């Protein structure tokens, strides 16, 4: 007898929905990612794109390495939320990001964020006339 296990086809993309975030060139943005209480002491991270399989290897910042020139990560364990702040934004920072929580068993948990970086804030000032 040949037993063939039922395989679920997995596509390497993430998340049914994503959070939309906007900021301006030269500005900064904070991205908040919530997690479950069981993940309180697990590593948190963020990466570009929407491919969970390579996210940890391409992490821009992790809770073990909390700061670099453009990214910083803070973890509020009481509210079960970690926040990644990105500074000195440029148009190149626009795009998809994944917040990841490392699971020691099973698959890591992800949430998706879409960042839109617009032109400098001064471009959006209105001209008041009397």
From TrEMBL:
SMART domains reported in the protein's UniProt record: IG
GO annotations of cellular component type: plasma membrane
Classification via InterPro entries: CD300_family_receptors, Ig-like_dom, Ig-like_dom_sf, Ig-like_fold, Ig_sub, Ig_V-set
Gene Ontology MF terms in the entry: transmembrane signaling receptor activity
Record PROSITE patterns: IG_LIKE
Main location: membrane
UniProtKB keywords: Membrane, Transmembrane
Annotated protein name in UniProt: Ig-like domain-containing protein
Species this protein is from: Anabas testudineus (Climbing perch)
Taxonomic classification: Eukaryota, Metazoa, Chordata, Craniata, Vertebrata
């Amino acid at each position: 007898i040949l037993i063939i296990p039922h395989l679920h086809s997995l596509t390497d993309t993430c998340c049914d929905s994503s959070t939309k975030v906007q900021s301006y060139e030269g500005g900064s943005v904070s991205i908040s990612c919530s997690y479950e209480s069981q993940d309180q002491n697990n590593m948190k991270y963020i990466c570009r794109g929407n491919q969970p399989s390579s996210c940890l290897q391409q992490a821009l910042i992790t809770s073990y390495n909390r700061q670099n020139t453009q990214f910083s990560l803070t973890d509020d364990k009481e509210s079960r939320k970690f926040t990644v702040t990105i500074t000195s934004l440029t148009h190149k920072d626009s795009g998809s990001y994944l917040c990841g929580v490392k699971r020691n068993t099973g698959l890591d948990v992800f949430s998706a964020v879409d960042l839109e970086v617009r032109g400098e804030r001064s471009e959006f000032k209105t001209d008041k006339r009397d």
